[in-house]
Amino acid sequence: MNASLSTGHADSGDRPSAGVPYLLVGMMFLTYAFSYLDRQIVNIVAEHMKTDLDLADWQIGAMSGLGFALLYTTLGLPVARLAERTDRVNIITAALMVWSGCTALFGLGRNFIEVFAARIGVGLGEAGGSPPAMSMIADATPRAYQSRALALYNLGVPMGALLGMVLGGFVVDALGWRWAFWIVGPPGILLAILIRMLLRDPRGRADAEASKAVRSQDTVPSLGEVAASLRRNTAFWWIAAGAALTTFVGYGQQTFYASFFLRNHADQLDDLAKALGLAGPTTVLGIGLGIAFGLGGAIGTILGGQLGDRWRSPHAYLWVPALGSALAAPLYIATLVLPSAGFSLALLVVPVALKSMWYGPIYAAVQRMTHARSRATVLAIFLFLLNALGLGFGPLSIGLISDWLAQSMGEAQGLRWALIAVTIVSLASSLCFWAAKGRPGEVPG
C-alpha cells in the first residue's frame, strides 16, 4: 500500500473532536521523564566520577553513551515486535522497573567496568520504553493532534534533563555522586506500579474504530514486509539520517557540558555559589544547565509540535527541524567561547530550544507513513538508527577527541574544541531533514 507523507495512514484520527488522550500521554510523559532523569544525572556527576574512579574522557563517553546504547539499540526491535502482539502497558511497566533498579545499582560501581555494566542494564530496561509508548499514543490520538501529542510525550526529555541536572547538582555537593543514583532509582519502580494500575492498552479501541482499509489488514505485517517497504521509502532514510546526526551532537553535548564548565569556569561557578549561598559549584551548574536544557528543551519541543500541526503541510514536519538545527549550531559554539559562565548558561537556552523543535514533527512524520500494526516496529528501527550513531558514538567521539587534544592543549581547552568540532555536525543534520522534502514516503506493510 503506497501513500505519500501528505496522506499517510487513513484512520479515525481525522476527527479533531476526539482530542488528545491526556491520561495516556501524561503517564507516558512521566515514564520518558524518568528515563531521561536517569540518563542525565550521569552527566552532571561525570566530572566527580572521573576524579573518584580515575577515568579518561573516552571512558566517560563510553559509559554514558556506548554502554547504554549496546542493548538499548539491539533489543529495541525484538521488544517492538513483541509490542505489536501483546499488551504494551505490561512491557512498559517491566521495562521501567528494570532500568530504575539498574540506576540504583550504578551508584555501587567501584571502577569503569562496573559502572559500564550497570549502564548496560539501564539500556536494557529503556529498550522497552519508547517504541510501545509512542505506538500507543499514535493509536489513541487523532491525526490532527498527533504532532502535539508526541511533542507532549517528548517533553519528558527536557523535564528529565531539568530534574537530573538540578537534583544531581544538589546531591553531589551535599552527599557525593553515588547518592544521586540511589535517590532517583527507586521512585521509578513506584511509577511502574502506578502505570500498571491506571492504564489500559488502547489497541482494542483503535482497531474497532479503524477505517475499512485498515480493518482489512488484521494481521501484523511480518518483519520482512516492513523492511521491504522501508527500503523503498527514501523519505524515511533521509529523516533517520537527520535524526541520527542530531542525536549524535545532542547526546555528546549533554554528556560533557557539565565537565566543560567545571574545567573552564570553575572559579566563576564557585563565586556564584558563594554569592547565592549554595553548597558548591556543581549545585550552581546543575541549576544553570537544568534551566537551559529543561526550559529551552520544553519551549522548543512545544513550539515544534505546534508548528508541525498548525501548518498541516507535510513539509512543515521537515523544514521546522531543518531550520532549528541550522540556527542552533552557531549559537552552541558561542556558548563554548564566551568568557562569562553566566552569559554562556543564559544563552544556552536559545540553541537548546531551536534544536529541540525536531521531536514532535519528526516522530509524527514517521508515524504517519507507518501502518497501524507496524508502528512500534518502524519506530524501533528508527530509534536503532539514530541511537546507534547518536547515543552510541556521540559521547564517545567527543571523549576521544578531547583526550587527543588534551595532549597538546590541556583538558580544559581540549574538551572545548572537541565540543565545537562535533557541534558543526548539526549543519549536516539540517541538510538531511531538508533533503527528505518531496521524497516518496510509503506506508510499510
Automatic annotation (TrEMBL):
CDD domains: MFS_spinster_like (cd17328). It comes from Novosphingobium decolorationis. PANTHER family: PROTEIN SPINSTER, SPINSTER. It is found in: Membrane. It is a multi-pass membrane protein. It comes from the Bacteria. Residues 24-438 form the Major facilitator superfamily (MFS) profile domain. Pfam families: MFS_1. The keyword Membrane applies. This is MFS transporter. The chain crosses the membrane at residues 20-37, 58-77, 89-109, 150-171, 177-199, 235-253, 284-304, 316-337, 343-366, 378-402, 414-436. Keywords: Membrane, Transmembrane, Transmembrane helix, Transport. Its main location: membrane. InterPro entries: MFS, MFS_dom, MFS_spinster-like, MFS_trans_sf.
